Amino acid sequence: MSWGSASEFFAMGGYGLYVWGSFGVTAVCMAADALIAVKRHRAARAQTGENS
Amino acid sequence: MAETRFFTYASPPRFYALAGKLIPWFWTAAVLLAYAGLYIGFFKAPTDATQGDAYRIIFIHVPAAWMSMVLYLVMAFWAAIGWAFNARLASMVARALAPTGAMFTFVALWSGALWGKPTWGTWWVWDARLTSELILLFLYLGYMALVNAIDDTRRADQAGALLAVIGSVNVPIIYFSVKWWNTLHQGATISATAAPKMVATMLTAMLLMTLACWAYAFAVVFTRTRAIIAERERDAKWLNGGTA
User: Fold this and answer.
1) Is B210 exposed, middle or buried (0-12, 13-18, 19+ CB in 10 A)?
2) Within chain B, which residues score under 70 in pLDDT?
3) Nearest to A34 among B43, B220, B231 (CB)
4) Three-state SS letters, B203-229
5) CA-based nearest residue to B93, from B66, B68, B67, B74
């Protein structure tokens, strides 16, 4: 696939809202899930008084 | 150091150390695979003849839907092992899997709705595939609520295991729903018995994204398992500067 321009790429043939809405929300969800897990681990380690 | 045997890593301290070493590698793999998958998916795969570029949602929709089902079965498996053999680590892994599984289930439903609107003309239909996937989300949420509602940790693990195992009957229902009932949803994308019904670049992108999701799931679930171990073994000597 060769996109003519950046705006053509972001338009996704008129389906930009649906395509980027899917990938955007997915990225946010995956980042949030990972961040919550990392924070939970840090909090648990802080309780033990040592970090690693 | 004792010799490494089959159950060596069933010991929370050993698993904690091993997972800590593996997590950066899983993150590296997830990022590289996602980069390759997105590149091929968005720059190499051609525009679909009937669906236009809306079909590109497949590169996250199908991997997320697969992960939602596989992670549930893995969760039910470890929950059952933890219950049957009184293996603490297995129960902790089961708990660590639930939020990531629920997240992938939500992503599958969300991307499915955004795919359904332009192709079917509707965000949602109460058909077998969509409804059973929604039930999967409620099973994950129910499992998390149940294990968090019971104060006695091991009793909570057991109650959660019962729910997880009974709920696993839903997974084959999701998988075969497109065969058993009439539905708007298309059939299986990949099957073991037939040639893939898509061009090679599309298939490659989808499989790379699936592997990226696997690596991501390992990284996050191991991180959460380490958190749960640290929470439960708060007073253990090995966590507080003792030898592990």
Assistant:
1) buried
2) 1-9, 190-197, 241-244
3) B220
4) HHHHHHHHHHHHHHHHHHHHHHHHHHH
5) B74
What is the DSSP track for B129-145?
HHHHHHHHHHHHHHHHH
The single-letter DSSP state of residue B239 is: G
Q: State the CB neighbour count (10 A cutoff) for residue B201.
A: 15
| Coil/strand/helix, residue B1 | coil
Q: What is the ipTM of this complex?
A: 0.90
Question: Residue ranges of the domains in chain B?
Answer: 21-188+196-231
> Which residues is B48 bridged to in the sheet?
B52
What per-residue confidence (pLDDT) applies to B161? Answer: 97
**CB-CB neighbors (< 8 A) of A13 in chain B:** 47, 52-54
Q: Mind telling me how many Å the CA of A12 is from chain B's nearest CA?
A: 6
pTM: 0.91
Size (chain A), residues: 52
At residue A51, the pLDDT reads 47
Task: Please name every residue paired with B52 in a beta bridge, in sequence order, or none if there are none.
Answer: B48
Interface test with chain A among B57, B62, B137, B233, by most A beta carbons within 10 Å: B57
Q: Tokens for B224? A: 């959460």
